[in-house]
Amino acid sequence: MSQPPNYPDWQPPQQPNTQYPPQQPQWQPQYPPPNTYYPPPPWQQQPIMPPPPPPRPPKKKANPWLILGIIAAVLIIGAAINNTTRSSPSAQATPTADTVLATDTPTDTPVPTATLDASIPTSTPAPPPKWTTTHTFTGNGIKKTAIFSVPDDWKILWSCKANSFYGSQYNVQVYVYNSDSSIQDIAINELCKTGNTSGETEEHQSGDIYLEINSEAAWTVQVQEFN
Prior knowledge:
The chain has 227 residues and is mainly beta. It is built from 1 helix and 9 strands; from the N terminus they run αβββββββββ. 11% of the residues lie in helices and 30% in strands.
């Protein structure tokens, strides 16, 4: 056999890598061992119910014979106390020559009655209010009265004599003035004649006033207040 030439850098040719990766074992399904219990998932589990409450003990029935016995005993004791009270003698005072026997019968004592003392004056009811004349003015022709005070409600009454003037008719006028001479009201403006010789009017102004009567003949004017 021939030898390769003797070269210092020569090396024998390398063999190609013919090795392959090891093969993986073939997968096989795993099954649980027999008689093994797995709990169901939470969404499939049944709700846990609370345990039922313990049964109540039965009520004890009252013994009717015991109740009847107690009632009978109370009635017997009450009857015995009543008989004892009736049979005990009542206390009486021992009569003596100088004492009076005490009895339970009350004596009739006359009840004092109230009598009306006529000497004491009794209060009389106040009379009801009415129209009262406070001022009366008479004259002939034109006149003015003095200043006087009137309340919130008052009257003016007038009268005349138709035959006191020629023709048997004339004017009767009454003016109401305030104390400062300002006119307040024309209260009366009448024609005095046969069949119309008197009248009245009601005023509702309070304060200090005076009247002016304007006429051609005789007249009478009154002022009234309700009190």
